[in-house]
Specification:
Helix 2 crosses helix 4, helix 6 packs antiparallel against helix 8 and helix 6 packs across helix 10. Strands 1-2-3 form a three-stranded antiparallel β-sheet. The protein is globular, with a radius of gyration of 24 Å. With 289 residues, it is mainly α. It has 14 helices and three strands.
């Protein structure tokens, strides 16, 4: 495929993503994956000429399951958009790795907060940990989305093009107001270095990385680790899975159930058969004495 043909093929997928998802992150991920994929094939190939075998060979070269899944989904969507509905039907989606997510606990967040000297960075991590916002939602948050009279954060067109309302706590409002006094944003809460441009997802990721290192925490934290920490705090404080799912904007309670598997309080409530046996044995010994 020529460079022009590649760009046309990707543009068609980009336009579809705009209409279907309305999410710049999804579109960017898919278009980037397709550019890598199509660039592997020279001008002798058309979309139709790239066999399933060649697609599978390519996918196996992509490191990491999550990255491979993104490429699989992007390529499949491209063929669907271009009218090849049955393409890749024999190429299986990568098996899911049933791993528990890494989350920031309250002690770790406190350590990150204490070493954070930049008020913008403090406001960013607090929105993730105290309101459970996705990193994209933090970047897209506008001044008009903050309803301090009702103590609500309005998340407009989050993942899945869904609106939702999130509780705005007094400590979080205080931090946002202190940040506002210093930076005076105009439209978006967080601006990048170039005027009124939005703060980038990459910048948020770098904030978490640097604060983790500065706090001497030997874990690989991401912005989503703070969001997981928010969910775990709600669960430990007695919130139901349904309530947590609503606050986090989950489509299904199945997505939220993973936090029940991570809750130490639930795990510690499990009755140990060995403890029961030892207690019974000790009781018998006491009776004999």
């Amino acid at each position: 495929m020529t460079t022009e043909e590649i760009q046309k093929a990707i543009k068609k997928v980009s336009d579809y993503c705009d209409q279907k998802f309305g999410e710049t992150n999804t579109k960017h991920t898919y278009c980037s994956a397709l550019n890598m994929f199509l660039s592997k094939f020279n001008s002798a190939y058309t979309l139709k000429d790239i066999s399933d075998e060649k697609i599978l060979e390519y996918l196996l070269t992509i490191p990491g399951r999550s990255n491979r899944c993104n490429h699989h989904s992007a390529i499949k969507l491209m063929y669907k958009v271009h009218g090849f509905k049955n393409k890749m039907r024999f190429i299986p989606y990568p098996d899911k790795e049933d791993k528990l997510p890494i989350h920031v606990n309250k002690d770790e967040f406190m350590r990150m907060f204490i070493v954070c000297e930049n008020m913008k960075h403090k406001a960013i991590i607090c929105l993730m940990f105290d309101a459970g916002l996705r990193v994209s939602e933090v970047c897209n948050l506008k001044i008009t989305d903050i309803d301090s009279s009702n103590m609500i954060l309005n998340i407009i067109q989050g993942k899945g093009r869904k609106d939702r309302k999130v509780k705005l706590t007094n400590p979080l409002l205080f931090i946002l107001r202190e940040y506002f006094k210093i930076y005076r944003p105009l439209i978006y809460i967080f601006n990048g270095q170039s005027g009124n441009a939005q703060y980038s997802v990459r910048s948020c990721q770098e904030v978490i990385k640097q604060l983790t290192k500065k706090a001497e925490i030997n874990k690989h934290f991401t912005p989503h680790s703070c969001r997981h920490g928010f969910a775990m705090s709600l669960l430990e404080n007695g919130s139901t899975l349904s309530e947590i799912g609503n606050q986090m904007g989950h489509n299904s309670e199945e997505t939220t159930k993973i936090y029940a598997r991570m809750n130490n309080k639930i795990i510690q409530k499990i009755q140990s058969p060995l403890e029961q046996i030892m207690e019974a044995m000790n009781s018998k010994l006491l009776i004999k004495k």
